[in-house]
Write a structure and sequence with these properties.
Blueprint: H1 6-21, E1 26-30, H2 36-44, E2 49-53, H3 56-64, E3 70-77, E4 81-82, H4 86-89, E5 96-104, E6 108-111, E7 119-122, H5 124-129, H6 131-136, E8 140-143, H7 147-157, E9 162-166, H8 168-174, E10 177-180, E11 190-197, E12 210-218, H9 224-234, E13 239-245, E14 255-261, H10 267-278, E15 280-290
Parallel strand pairs: 1-2, 1-3, 7-8, 7-9
Antiparallel strand pairs: 3-4, 3-11, 5-11, 6-9, 6-10, 12-14, 12-15, 13-14
Bound molecules: 3-phenylpyruvic acid.
Length: 296
């Protein structure tokens, strides 16, 4: 609680008390009340209690220790790429991906008064999504833990010329004046969120395909990745994401974050995963869930 700027603490305390009264309704997220992840929790489950957590690890711990039934974590954005390093957070978390959720991200510039804004404080992802708007006006981006936390900080410091880039709700919660709305550099500014749970869950019935997300590390031999991927091609399993990421001092891009259509138990998927495992040092399944937005 003490990590948050003072204007956010009373709201955080209220939400924490509501979550403690009924953890089954609580959805933990990283950030202060009014952050995009707060909006995502309410959009995904309107009757939930959004539980603000200062760091991603705190949101994951809240699910692990039973303070919240689920966590909702931003993973990638259509304008600015990867948001959270889930491949670092998830494997050791012991949690399962049970759903995905897409939120249209709308950024507002807000301040305590009408002084021209010289610095915009916000989450690096939000600053990156408004890069052209800020640059064209000579506004200096300043990184902070999250968007709404930045708004609470501006409301607390009341320094003339400081602004925050945050959702409209944050301006309301922390009593800031709106300088501009929808300052993101493109209209199709979407963030994909993953919903995490202690227990795996069968994908909900629905029109879209089932998705499965997993991590793997290929053996460091020629053509290992090519051969590891071959099983998906020969079995007709559609791969919608393959991202390499760096972990450890090897600096060899051999670890990957992958999304496919289908799930274990599908014969074609099982055959493809068997070939993947043969050419990999390890494979870590993170969860299966219904596709929430078609991959066009
Ligand atoms: O800081 C927030 O509002 C977050 O929830 C993180 C974030 C920031 C920008 C886009 C999506 C999520």
């Amino acid at each position: 609680m003490e990590n948050y700027p003072a204007p956010a603490r009373v709201i955080v305390a209220d939400l924490a008390a509501k979550a403690a009264a009924d953890p089954s309704r609580a959805i933990a997220y990283q950030g202060a009340p009014g952050a995009n992840s707060h909006l995502a929790a309410l959009g995904y489950a309107p009757d939930c209690v959004p539980l603000p957590c200062f760091a991603f690890e705190d949101a994951i711990d809240a699910v692990r220790n039973g303070q919240a039934a689920r966590a909702i974590i931003p993973i990638e954005n259509s304008l600015h790429g990867r948001v959270a390093d889930m491949h670092f957070l998830l494997p050791e978390s012991g949690l399962h991906i049970i759903d995905e959720y897409f939120l249209r991200i709308r950024h507002c510039l807000m301040a305590v008064d009408d002084t021209p804004v010289k610095s915009a404080i916000s989450h690096p992802q939000a600053l990156g999504q408004c890069r052209h708007y800020l640059r064209e006006r000579g506004i200096q981006p300043v990184a902070y833990a999250d968007t709404a936390g930045a708004a609470a900080l501006v409301a607390e410091s009341r320094k003339p010329g400081d602004g925050a880039v945050a959702p409209y709700l944050a301006a309301e919660l922390y009593g800031l004046k709106l300088v501009a709305e929808n300052i993101e550099d493109s209209d199709d500014n979407m963030t994909r969120f993953l919903v995490l749970s202690r227990e795996p869950k069968m994908p909900e019935p629905g029109a879209g395909p089932v998705m499965t997300t997993f991590l793997f590390e290929v053996k460091n031999v020629p053509a290992a990745l090519y051969k590891a991927m071959g099983g998906f091609a020969t079995n007709g399993v559609n791969m919608t994401k393959l991202e390499s990421y760096q972990r450890g001092a090897s600096f060899a891009a051999t670890e990957f974050f992958c999304d496919i259509e289908g799930m274990p138990g599908d014969p074609a998927v099982d055959r493809a995963l068997a070939e993947l495992e043969f050419h990999s040092k390890w494979v870590r399944m993170l969860g299966s869930y219904r596709q929430a937005r078609p991959r066009t």
